[in-house]
Amino acid sequence: MSLANQFDFDVAVIGGGSAGYAAASATARGGLRTVVIEGGPEVGGLCILRGCMPTKALLYAAEVKHLAEHAATWGLQVPEVRFDFAQVMARKNAMIADFAGYRRQQLESGRFHFIRANASFVDPHTVKLDNGRRLTSAHFVLSTGSAVSTPPLPQLDAAGYLTSDTAMTLERLPKSLIVLGGGAVAVEFAQFFARFGVRVTLLQRSEHLLRDFDPDAAQVIETVFRREGVELFTGTRLLEARAEGGLKHITFEHAGRTRTVSAEEIFHGLGRSPNTAGLNLPAAGIALAARGRIETDAQMQTSAPHIFAAGDCTGPHEIVHIAIQQGETAAHNILHPQTPRRVDYRLLISVVFTDPQVACVGLSEAQARAQGRDFIVAGYPFNDHGKSLLMEAKDGFVKLLADPRSGEILGGACVGPGGGELVHEIVTAMCKRMTVGELAAMPHYHPTLAEIWTYPAEELAAQVTG
């Protein structure tokens, strides 16, 4: 079903990460002449190369080490736990090479054209490549991802710092580390480094870590971090960075005082920004939203109707499965403009892979209040649950929000063992718009972690008025 032949391609996808690959696969299956243009030094996208997969490999290594060090809890005698950081990184590298190799095979499979080059717009239907070529397309999907944000202090460039990108290539661990930020990236790396023996200090601007979650979730992680030796300062304002005397120093305000902390290295974990600077978007008539994001509607369409965007370059959520959903939505709307689809964020899932894990789906209490939504809420702690007691995994809780009249589940949160897995029970329930009564009546095997959901579900079911 090729479109107008006055263009070289029906669809040009700029960026071959998760969103771009999903869009290209769908348009190619639909019979459109599709090209993927990837200009990064490596092929695979952020998730595979420097994001989800490598970081979770490292975090799991840290968790295994932590469990071995605490084996006496279960009456086990484990000799002194030692590690070889080079082998930890080598295993991560080998796994990522496999994942990236498979993605490269997919991109080079011949289902669509694949060009290794950077692209920038000349006009709304034409891009020039840095290999000297120009090509035209009836439609575009922009999926150029994100890059580490500009550091909050200009002196950091002179002092030097690690990012989530460069930390993936470390050959040795620093003895001490200052982590800037309290979001998912910052806290995951903070715990990883701390569990491998690095003295970690974390500075967060907000009053709590993980500000996108309810405070009760953040407080659990803050308690665990302090117990594991992380020096934690929240409610801070960064003032200065400098390198001196073989160390790096950050000066900041905290509780009305000016303080300075020092470490061998600094980790900049204050987020990522859309990677769009080289696209020459004004030539295509594309508008930008806050913080440089490509502005789209719910159909992933930009201000230029024939150009769509997906993934981190448009947001608003920098999450892989959302990027894939956006890419597939953009592809569907190119293929089927008469029956367009919209991205529905009702089932938005967030997971932070600390130990304990932090996960949520749907509305948080803060979001429900901000929307003026009536809700009832109930929770249950892991320190009073059979399976988690057996595991000595007593930090955290589960929580459910429900409509007070219908009992429909509006949101769920899990801070605890396997939280990223357990939250999917609530994703399933919300996908089918189940009520708390239906969830409470659903059989759960004993003893399992999953049966903990039945306790808040039963409590809320008794309160439903409809």
Explain the overall architecture:
The chain has 466 residues and is an alpha/beta fold. The protein has 3 domains: 211 residues, FAD/NAD(P)-binding domain; 116 residues, 3-Layer(bba) Sandwich (FAD/NAD(P)-binding domain), CATH 3.50.50; 106 residues, 2-Layer Sandwich (Enolase-like, domain 1). A hairpin with a 4-residue loop joins strand 17 and strand 18. The longest helix is centred in the first third of the chain and has 23 residues.
Give me the number of helical elements.
13
Low-confidence stretches: none
DSSP summary, beta strand count: 21
Output the CATH class name of the largest domain.
Alpha Beta
Q: What is the straight-line distance between the termini?
A: 50 Å
Question: Which terms would index this structure?
Answer:
466 residues, alpha/beta, FAD/NAD(P)-binding domain, Enolase-like, domain 1, seven-stranded mixed β-sheet, five-stranded antiparallel β-sheet, 13 helices, 21 strands
Give the structure's gist in a few sentences.
This protein has 466 residues and is an alpha/beta fold.
